[in-house]
UniProtKB/TrEMBL annotation:
Pfam families: Glyco_hydro_92, Glyco_hydro_92N. The keyword Hydrolase applies. Residues 39-290 form the Glycosyl hydrolase family 92 N-terminal domain. Residues 296-759 form the Glycosyl hydrolase family domain. It comes from the Bacteria. Residues 1-26 form the signal peptide. It comes from Luteibacter sahnii. InterPro entries: 6-hairpin_glycosidase_sf, GH-type_carb-bd, GH92_a_mannosidase_put, GH92_N, Glyco_hydro_92, PNGase. This is GH92 family glycosyl hydrolase. The lineage of its organism: Bacteria, Pseudomonadati, Pseudomonadota, Gammaproteobacteria, Lysobacterales. Keywords: Hydrolase, Signal. GO terms for molecular function: hydrolase activity.
Amino acid sequence: MPNSSRARRGLLAAALTLALPALALAASPDKGTAAFESVDPMIGTGGDGHTFPGATVPFGMIQLSPDTAMPDVKHAYKWAAGYQYGDKSILGFSHTHFSGSGHSDLGDVLVMPIAGDVRLDPGSPDQPGSGYRSRFDHASEKAQAGYYAVTLADYDVRAELTAGRRVGWHRYTFPKGKPAHLLLDLRPSIYDYDGKVLWSSLRVRTDGTVTGGRTTRGWAPGRQLYFAMRFSQPMVSRLLKNREKDVAYKGFSGPGNRADDTDGMSGRALEGVFDFGNLDRPLVVKVAISSVSEDNAIANLDADGAGFDFDARRAEARQAWEKTLSVVDLQAPAPDRKTFYTALYHAMLSPTLSMDVDGRYRGPDNQVHQAKGFDFYSTWSLWDVYRAQQPLMTLLEPDKSNDFVSSLIAAREASPFGILPVWAYQGMETWCMIGYHAVPVIADAYMKGIRGYDAGKALQAMVASATYGPYGGLGDYMKLGYVPIDRQPEAASKTVEYAFDDWSLAQMAKAMGKDDVAATFMKRAGNWKNSFDTKTGFLRARKSDGSYREPFDPSSAAYGSDYTEGNAWQYSWYVPQDVAGLIDALGGPDAFVKKLDEVFDAKVDPKSFAHVEDITGLIGWYAHGNEPSHHVAYLYDYAGQPWKTQERLTGIMKSQYAPTPTGLVGNDDLGQMSAWYIFTALGFYPVAPGSNQYVIGRPFVEKATLNLANGKRFTVSADHLDAKHPYVGKVTLDGKPLDRVFLRHEEIVAGGELHFSMQATPARDWATGADAMPYSMSRQP
């Protein structure tokens, strides 16, 4: 999960809520209603979860949410989503946010409703009244999927937000007797409040539509974002101001104005104040965005933002979430339902729609392109989401997966370097993190029969990415069979992550009948051995002369070291394509299990990782707050001791997730932490995406039914599921005994029932034979 440090190298109460019409939010008889009512968007908004509480729809282009701070880039980690639950004031409401990222940016088109006097600077959170920000109380907040509301205490303004796919909707109820204003500040971004706007423009058009845009040098340099904004009440006056030069233009709006009554400004520090006088009804504001142009933002607003019926739009957002969340019917206690459905909600926020109504989008070359036959999505934290979030989408949202793969291919075709995205958003590349993990995303989809795209172009893009020598030491990797540490930082991690990506590429190539390509990359998939030191039993970085770097301390972790956000204890298990080979390298199953136990049972002071923000959620050396550890608890299955996987998963689920604002121990990373929870709660996990296998752990819900896109239903059920029965005694699939620790994808999509019988003691004779083990390339090439 990328963070600010990594960027430097890779570069009042709920009762106050306005009553909605009874029909608009009447309880739906649909099964999605119960799921919707279980979602709590406040989970993860405190600590290091980095989620936002605001309004959005599934995979929507708009993420309209409150921002409590936009600090400078050196201190932005805690506010990567713009909001921290512990803060006491709100700066305003902006329209774009990452969900759970370890890095900051976005926060575009910040608006703040103001009653009374207007201040043009945000002021200090420690000095109430020093600026336009306002204090608030959590008791006044209401957060639901697709809706957020809060009372701004300093203005006595009730703010409500909802969203559509491309339009953000605001409703502000102002106190009587005070003039109503809306402030628009184009200066701040979550990346850095001041100094990152290269250029911006702001214009009031003849019909009262406010348009503008800006170019920023944030995480993705040169990113362009445009907007169009309309109001349900006419402006009585307006003020546009360039704070950089302290120049202002005043204009007036209303009946009798000339047809050419427009005003506009450009510069790097623009603000607008729009005045509405004393209002006797709420002000509704609607905003559309575009990465292409102001005209396209207007077109998005015209197409997706008709009228000013806020309640209807809120009801539509709710309906969208009810439909999406109804993919799983869950039987579990209320706290577990809250955690589960919020995790499902978070897993279905990204990637985000990044295309206008006319099909145009901006690509990594910063040029405008036209999508044909698919919707273009971006916001790709690929180092994270290829592990579980994208595999979850192949299972629950296969149609979306087609668009996701098509989007990755289209991004590659527009790339100046001819390779797939690494960490991209709004079409733009950041080059953050390591690996070419778009490859396993595509391969996993293809292997599962999701093929609504040009597979030939997909494979071509995958090979191009895997052979682009200038990227991350790939030239040396192809020549030496490993990435040398004297030429590339984090070389040990790069070697093993490249090897997994290569293996996934080989699987797709083989399935396509491209045997020569498959053979090449299958051989490369074994490169993990070239950086695994059998003498010490750890993955280590080697130099270009073949020697291991000395001195070696497996507990050492630092940014830019031999490993990516981790140490040898955490990264030495990253061989998901060949766990059997790793078992052999460590001296066999008993030695393998002994070392795994050392990982979880070690006495580790969390303070020892204070300098590495992402190593959180420690259980011994195991760090659940960061992705490289996510598959590790499942590895006991490969060594014939599945009861130990069950023990470790019980500990992780108990300590690492809670239905509270601080209920995520680390960055949710665009849904990866949440997807891990969903899979694990169901009882299985995709250790090696591309293998079409899910490794069985143990269930944490009494009953869950997946309502699949093909019309089939797959149910997971368990008896004796309580704290006194943490172990799996036996498993049946469609009533027949299942004596293996993996489940095939085709068995799930065919529908049926996976049933667990839980017991108090380990079942040491269940699924321990050689045929019971999941896939490993050295045993099942």
